[in-house]
Amino acid sequence: MEKILLGPMPYMSVMPTLLVGANVKGKPNYMTAAWATVACMAPPMVCVAINKMRYTAQGIEENKTFSLNVPSVDQVVETDHCGLVSGSVKDKSQVFTSFFGKLKTAPMAKECPVNIECTVFKSVDCGSHLLYIGKIVEIHADPSCVTEGKPDIKKVNPILYTHAAYFDVGNLVDMAFSAGKDYQKG
Amino acid sequence: MEKILLGPMPYMSVMPTLLVGANVKGKPNYMTAAWATVACMAPPMVCVAINKMRYTAQGIEENKTFSLNVPSVDQVVETDHCGLVSGSVKDKSQVFTSFFGKLKTAPMAKECPVNIECTVFKSVDCGSHLLYIGKIVEIHADPSCVTEGKPDIKKVNPILYTHAAYFDVGNLVDMAFSAGKDYQKG
Fold first, then answer.
1. Element (H or E) spanning B48, and its range?
2. What interface predicted TM-score (ipTM) does this complex get?
3. Taking Cα atoms as reference points, which of A102, A131, A136, A140 lies closest to residue A119?
């Protein structure tokens, strides 16, 4: 089948739905974000793209710290709310119960099963967005969501994001570093 | 419930499974990767973290171009194979049918329903990994996977990646920029 050209657009096949936590003017704020991934293995880093105009960007610049909080499917209403309303017009500090870890300026949402606490390693100006690369200082998790020391995707039950819609995780397809052993061609 | 500390590790709740396409020494090569996301809206950019030691990194440095190819669940064997074997020891140019778009050095896998063609905007040295930020030059898609000019997650049927396992996309949970309107608290 011939391909068609869709033109350049900010597309990724699968994205996580997260809440970026930052203290802005000394108060916790949470912003919904999906443009995030792992940036490095050693040391462990993540990155998240944030529009320069966002209230959250002010807080990250202020403290050079932030958190990425992983909401469960049953927190979709609170999560989407944090993407609908800016902290500049509404105080979102009470949407979640905030706690602090090793850093004293990266608020984390207690209700979220996993929280990633970060210091800013670097920020890259890409145009409309700043790509914040964060060094992971600590990962906090509900013990009920952990299997063999790692967050378990089926227990965390995270929200996937795609064009304006939230999905849950489906079924196991295969094991990585294993499925490909059946490859025959060539 | 009290949280437990898992320590820093390269964790993200949900990740895409992709094939990074690059010409290395003039020949197409595909590497499996999951550490990727959107980096900017305007201009549209993506980023992908690649271990410095990878054969693919040589090709990206050589041409300053690369592609991100989105395999479907039914391509899990070929996809995992490209993560098991390095292009430095085995020629992977025949695993997929390569085609070229606007750039002449970013090979794309025809069998994958969506292909993102990029030039390198910037690379950030994070430690073990280079974070390549790519400006999207074009998005190619199978017409059967497109709804209203955008790749449709249920038609593309992409592979999610988490700790050493592949999952498919589950069910629609809710609509973004909408679900949060029901938020009442505060």
1. strand B45-51
2. 0.96
3. A136
Return residues 100-139 of A near B (CB < 8 Å): 110, 114-116, 121-122, 124, 126-129, 131, 133, 135-139
Dist CA A73 CA A3 (whole Å): 34
> Whole-number mean pLDDT of chain B?
95
Q: Which helix (H) or strand (E) holds B83?
A: helix B76-84
pTM above 0.90, yes or no: yes
Q: Mean pLDDT per segment of 10 residues, for chain A of length 186 residues? A: 94 98 96 98 98 95 98 96 90 94 97 98 98 98 97 97 94 93 76
Candidates A14, A70, A130, A181: best to mutate against B (most CBs of B within 10 A) is A14
Torsion, Cα B80 B93 B120 A120, to 10 degrees, reads 20
What burial letters (b/e) apply to B120-141, b meaning 16+ CB within 10 Å?
ebbbbebebbbbbbbbbbbbbb
Rg (CA), chain B: 18
